[in-house]
Design goal:
499 residues; alpha/beta; 7-stranded mixed sheet; 5-stranded parallel sheet; 23 strands; globular
């Protein structure tokens, strides 16, 4: 059936929501029997109870993961065997595309068409890519000379704790699961309490694909309870975290207070989108800025929320970007043509509205948007919003909003543009738009960000690393570089005696 012909509301009414944890390949209630209620941000409907896991549940999951690692049921398999199982896992994701997309939309509010065409395929592609990488990566022999043989090998760390956010639940999980499982680790995943359902279903699909019991466990719960217990656990060897910089700091603190486990943080962003007056196709630049920012309701760590435009073209740029807002009018996320859905919950909606109020209060000019939308639906929607005349010191230019709010900042010179772009505590992504090849290279090198796009934004592939400078985190997701986070390097030195 064509996706546009599916009655998603009917499917939503008949959908089943199992919020129990997955530990040692079995569904389990929380040890204490506690649950929390998960409601959908699209209209407030109650989806069901979710296990409120705490320290005892985390301990059970970690013990299961450790047993699976220690007896070699996964890490001891030949790379080719692990590859086949992960390939089947990826195939099952695609086979369950409609189910997973519906769970994702109901859980966190994004348009069903994005969940279908972006989130599920990207998650499956990531798992499949790391499956293929398993038996393509070689170890090394050091050039020590004829009297020794020094083998440099990569070994799995052991038990990896994964904590993922609510904005891209499947994709963020796949970015961690792919390399962690490919290298032979066991995983305990704590999804956000705001979007737990797809993670729980992923675990079931992985088990159906042949992943042994204990290798992939999912424990839903609150960050201050389940998340902290996982990060503090003395038998967890590494944490892969994606989320806010504030919580990323806590992850480092938890590691210091426990066993000095490795912590890899992919954190917030306030990405600069720098447009020079020598870029001829201003319409394409402005439309790209709007589409990149308003996608996923602006709930993206790499959203280009600081648009830094040369003063001579700023008026026209703002006019085009503001006109694009009509293409992202919030609508029913379960309708096939919707381009902007609901923010994840009421708290996030109030946070975004608070930033919009701060922008107006501090003197920025509200060009379009700025209001709550679709209030009668019972969901949490905010209009795509554009501010002009923003100073880099304003709250909306400094802090990560995680909503559909664009701040346009004007500049005069190239040096000023670079200074404005780098004057942030974040360094996740940036973009430079110029038809002058020397300027494009010069500015790209000067921007302090993990990824710098030139004359485009957010083009993406699993083969390239993702991560940031400064307070945007450490380590990299995606690409072969991600394998480094989930392995230890061992040197085995053999003395070769002369004949």
């Amino acid at each position: 059936m064509a996706e546009s012909a599916i009655d998603w509301h009917a499917r939503a009414r008949s959908a089943a929501f199992d919020g129990r944890a997955v530990i040692d390949a079995a569904r389990r209630d929380a040890v204490a029997g506690e649950t929390f209620v998960k409601a959908s941000p699209i209209d407030g409907r109650v989806l069901g109870p979710v296990a409120r896991c705490r320290e005892a549940d985390i301990d059970a999951a970690v013990r299961s993961a450790r047993a699976a690692f220690d007896d070699g049921r996964w890490c001891g398999k030949a790379p080719a065997e692990r590859k086949k199982i992960l390939q089947r896992f990826a195939e099952r994701l695609l086979a369950a595309k409609d189910e997973l997309a519906l769970l994702e939309t109901l859980d966190m509010g994004k348009p069903i068409r994005d969940a279908l065409t972006v989130d599920v395929p990207a998650a499956a592609r990531t798992i499949a890519w790391y499956a293929e990488a398993i038996d393509k990566v070689y170890d090394e022999i050091a050039p020590t000379g004829a009297s020794a043989l020094a083998l440099i090998t990569r070994e799995p760390m052991g038990v990896v704790g994964v904590v993922v956010p609510w904005n891209y639940p499947m994709i963020m999980a796949a970015w961690k699961l792919g390399p962690a499982l490919a290298t032979g680790n066991s995983v305990v995943l704590k999804p956000s309490e705001k979007s737990p359902y797809t993670a729980l279903r992923l675990a079931e699909l992985a088990i159906e694909a042949g992943l042994p019991p204990g290798v992939f466990n999912v424990v839903p719960g609150y960050g201050t309870e389940a998340g902290e217990a996982l990060a503090m656990h003395m038998d967890v060897d590494a944490i892969g975290f994606t989320g806010s910089t504030r919580v990323g700091r806590k992850m480092l603190e938890y590691a210091g207070r426990s066993n000095l486990k490795r912590v890899y943080n992919e954190l917030g962003g306030k990405s600069a989108f720098v447009v020079f007056d020598d870029f001829a196709n201003l319409e394409r630049a402005a439309k790209t800025a709007a589409a990149s920012l308003f996608f996923n309701q602006g709930e993206s760590c790499n959203a280009p929320s600081r648009v830094i435009v040369h003063e001579s073209i700023a008026e026209r740029f703002v006019e085009i970007a503001a006109a694009q807002a009509s293409s992202f009018r919030p609508a029913d996320p379960l309708a096939a043509g919707t381009t902007m859905g609901a923010l994840v919950d009421e708290g996030q909606m109030r946070t975004v509205m608070g930033y919009i109020e701060a922008g107006t209060r501090e003197g920025a000019r509200l060009v379009t948007g700025g209001r709550r939308a679709r209030e009668a639906s019972g969901g949490y929607y905010v209009e795509p919003t554009v501010f002009d005349g923003v100073a880099n010191g304003m709250t909306i230019a400094r802090e990560e909003i995680f909503g559909p709010v664009m701040s346009v900042i004007r500049f005069k010179t190239e040096a000023e543009a670079v200074a404005l772009a780098n004057a942030t505590s974040y360094g996740l992504q940036a973009s430079v738009w110029s038809d002058n090849v020397n300027r494009a290279h010069r500015v790209a090198r000067a921007l302090r960000a993990g990824t710098v796009h030139v004359n485009q934004y957010d083009e993406d592939d699993v083969t390239v690393p993702f991560g940031g400078y400064k307070q945007s985190g450490n380590g990299r997701d995606k690409s072969l570089h991600a394998l480094e986070k989930y392995t230890e390097i061992k040197t085995t030195w053999l003395r070769i005696e002369p004949a």
